[in-house]
Design a protein that fits this description.
mainly alpha
């Protein structure tokens, strides 16, 4: 079974997995110290 068919056949699992990834990214973004932000030059 290909990976795409796995997620097409299980849309709830795919939705939950994407929500977990987004929440994990938000938690990481909030906990990232200011010193770790990249330098942005205008």
């Amino acid at each position: 079974m290909k990976l795409s068919h796995f997620f097409i056949d299980r849309p709830i699992f795919a939705s939950v997995l994407s929500i977990i990834i987004v929440v994990g990214g938000l938690v990481a973004m909030v906990n990232l110290p200011i010193a770790q932000f990249p330098d942005i030059t205008p």
